[in-house]
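Side project, low priority. Logging it here so it doesn't get lost.
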Amino acid sequence: MIMKKTIVLASGTFDLLHFGHVKYLEEAKKAGGENAKLIVIVARDKTVEKRKGTKPIMPENQRRALVESLEVVDEAILGYENFDIEMVIEKIKPNIIAVGHDQSGIEKAVKNHVNEKGLDVQIVRIGRFGKTELNSSSKILRKIVERYRR
């Protein structure tokens, strides 16, 4: 008997791919259990600029390719030009949506949509990894600036 895979959906910018991203994706896939398929939505350049006020350092196609190259990721796709979590959920039909520790706005939008439509989708919040490690793009950028300012 072939078991149906649990589809886990994760999303993010993934600019300057780092250890925190890898741990987030590993934990997201674990949330789906042994037979999980992890699909990752990589934010478009325009979406990042609109949400964060600055363009990402790496272009969207490179960010998507890097994320997809990770062993834990089964598929990485670029998000919609007009970020629409409802369209993403309808297209991918995930069983679980994993949100990162810094994605409270997305978490709220996902919960509202799931509750409104009465969908059977579990929302899982993935915690932050390490306090002193270079576990965020902004920490990495600060360290680079500090090192080369001397």
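Brief comment: The chain has one domain: 6-149.
Revisit when time allows.
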